[in-house]
Amino acid sequence: MSKFITFEGVDGAGKSTHLAWFADALRQRGPDVVVTREPGGTPLGEQLREILLNQTMSIGTEALLMFAARLEHIEQVIKPALRAGKWVISDRFSDASFAYQGGGRGLDWDKLSQLEQWVHPDLQPDLTLFFDVPVEVARQRLRSPDNNRQSNVTLDRFEQEQAGFFERVRAGYHQRIRQNPQRYAVIDGAQPLEKVKQQLEGIIATL
Ligand code: TMP
Taking Cα atoms as reference points, which of 127, 92, 128 lies closest to residue 16? Predict the structure, then answer.
């Protein structure tokens, strides 16, 4: 049976590295896996991503564009793949809007719930892997020379935010998890890579 799995975490939590490994490990067990991302995942969504990551705009506009890209993504990519029996792994989904626009930017949580109800009343991830790391660790990783985007100049509009913003984003994720804990696997992203892989293997074994 097809499954919809999402990866979440503050910028620098390491989720994208783990996502690639997780998708490969899953494919080896047989399922046809589609890997996608938000904002993005469709030609229009990728154009909206470019704007969202680089252009200053009001908080409301930011939230609406995130959900506009999401609607396109759901209709063009996620639902067709699930209907075809494929597994879909998305690098971020609506939890990121609650965490970043709600927690980080302070947009009213109810407004985000209304958008969620409008855009995907009948779809939620079967499982969300939340990579949790202390904000200081995430910020160091973002700025480390190992990261191919070494300097502030190449960090996007979100990545350039101050520590306080990321603390609120992280708190936003935790609030969302408290509302529906059974959907999430919380992974300590500060552990050594091998430990994280072991934990991911354990999760794959339960799917
Ligand atoms: P990424 O760097 O993980 O690809 O995500 C791009 C940025 O977009 C990241 O800083 C988080 C942000 N974002 C939101 O603010 N709201 C959303 O709904 C999504 C999907 C991402």
Answer: 92
Beta-bridge partners for 8:
130
Ligand 1 centroid – CA 127 distance (Å):
19
Residue 56 carries which side chain, given as an amino acid letter?
T
| Nearest partner of 165 among 100, 96, 112, judged by Cα | 100
Q: Which residues line ligand 1 (CB under 6 A)?
A: 11, 37-39, 66, 91-92, 96-97, 100-101, 158
Q: Say if residue 150's pLDDT is above 50.
A: no
Residue 181, amino acid: P
The whole-angstrom separation of Cα 41 and Cα 72 is 9
Give the torsion sign (CA, 175, 16, 7, 65): positive
Predicted TM-score (pTM) of this structure: 0.96
Ligand 1 centroid from CA 91, angstroms: 9
- Confirm if 33 and 27 have CB atoms less than 8 A apart: yes
